[in-house]
Please model this.
Amino acid sequence: MIHEIAPEYIDNQYHEKEVQDDSRICFCTGRKILARIKDGKLVWPLYREVKDQAGECTYLFSISGKDYFLAEGKEEKEISDAIWMDWRDIRDKEPTAEAFAGMTAMHLSQWHNSVQYCGCCGARTVHDKKERMMRCPSCGNTMFPKISPAIIVAVTDDKNRLLVTKYAGRTSDQYALVAGFVEIGETLEECVQRELMEEVGIRVRDIRYYASQPWGCVGNLMVGFTAKLDGSDQIHLDKTELGLAKWLTPEEVPEIDDYSSLTREMIRRFKHGCL
Model:
């Protein structure tokens, strides 16, 4: 998965650092980021190459001692040999650590852009010197990066079938799993049960934690579960959310060559009898 970058490692703690000539610079706008592809590899611009375009830079994190900074501004700048890439374009690129850096930079960029002004009094905010936090010098309000928990669940039945879905209104031919955001006052397990009932109208038992994954492009923490069908396998599709939902055997599940997401990982493991 995209966050599994060993032997590389991320230091995601905030440090008060000055940008250096060899710092990696992330230009982000929405869910796009400016990058280069060299010899098939994902490469970020260095500060010494783009200092005239970067303006003020904000420290993000480091990966194996390499520092990454966010460039100011929201407009799509032009850098030699670099192209604007959607998050879907970088998620399966190599090296995995650089793809993960891009996804995480997008997360922090979107948060940073949303907290330039205080939500309580409207004053301009400033960076805290010790924590990854925006602080209002007028009223003292503090704002930390937003992380939204969401569940994703692989449901199997006694016939060794997996419940797969496709989202409504999307052209992708790849299968997904039932997923959704955790609501206020709800446990993760309760969210699993609710989302399944709302989207496909089934009940489950034996809900078990599988794995989690940061999904930076939309600020999520995906929490994966497995569950067993409890009762009827008849699907009642919520067509506002899903375009398709059906049961597949391992032989019917197509081969998957994209291992970046928790969704693909769980579907692939089911196909090969490892879930």
In short: The first helix runs from residue 47 to 54.
